[in-house]
Amino acid sequence: MAQLLTNAEILERAKVLSGWTVENSKLQTSRTFKNFIQAIEFVNKLVEPAESAGHHPDIEISYNKVKITLTTHDAGGLTQKDFELAEAISQIK
Questions:
Q1: Residue 2: φ, ψ to 5°
Q2: Sequential pLDDT tens for the chain (93 residues)
Q3: Residues 6, 9, 89, CA angle at the centre, nearest 5°?
Q4: CATH number listed for the domain at residues 7-90
């Protein structure tokens, strides 16, 4: 099981993640697209990095808005895996 990060470690790692917030031991970001099709295309691009990491985000889709939430469920909070996947997701256009 992945090791939980301390609050200090979480704050330090969160500083370098543009567009992400930490709420209730979860990393979150939202993206807004021109339409539903572009939103779904973005979600489909999440498959490869999530599968490669063996770590899967919670995803909410509302027409052209996509909300991504990361937490390590089996560890009960944020771990390095969440921040690594957040960095990969941040690179997806």
A1: -70, 150
A2: 789 999 999 999 999 999 999 999 999 999 999 999 999 999 999 999 999 999 999 999 999 999 999 999 999 999 999 999 999 999 998
A3: 115
A4: 3.30.1360.20
With beta carbons less than 8 A apart as the criterion, state whether 86 and 20 touch.
yes
Domain locations in the chain? 7-90
For residue 36, the SS3 value is helix
Element (H, E) at 70: strand 65-70
d(CA 82, CA 36): 26
Q: Do residues 47 and 35 lie in contact, with contact meaning Cβ atoms separated by under 8 Å?
A: no
